[in-house]
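#lab-general

N.A. 3:47 PM
ok so I finally got the sequence cleaned up, no stray characters, all 176 residues accounted for. can someone with queue access submit it? mine expired

B.Y. 3:52 PM
send it over

N.A. 3:53 PM
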Amino acid sequence: MKAYVSRFDLRLFRAIFNYRRDSFLPAFFRVISFIGGGYFYFLFAIYMYFAQPELFKPTMFVSLIGFGIHLPIYFILKNMIRRVRPFNAHNDIDNMVYPIDEFSFPSGHTAAAFLVAFIISHFIPALAVYMYIYASLVGLSRIYVGVHYPSDIIAGAAFGTGVGWGAVYIVNHFIC
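B.Y. 4:20 PM
back already:
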């Protein structure tokens, strides 16, 4: 079963990766990947402070709890599983960005994007569709730039969503 999943994962990776020939997509996905590294979250916090001041504190509080849960578990998973990145595992795959760590599973960019999407959607439901489109684009960008397999993205999305749900639950049931 594991071999089948790995072959399917690599085939799906290559199907997405092969669209790099299109003119605007490399630049687009590089920007999305860069923004998914955390810059968007800082800008969104500034927006919340000025445009949604009544939601700023609760959103930031839940976000701090969420990232406080996310980061240690993420680092433990990354270093326990130690999955080699696509561009390191296959000579015919090159990377368009340089990741900050060596391993690919799960995708930290994707986990953070889905964590933030969940939290923002909880507090501002009207933004849910946009936040999940953004989070999905972050995940897709990580495949496109050659640093993650699709299963890394799926795991990151599930992990980030689960941590977001957990952070909201903790605040609603134990703190507030």
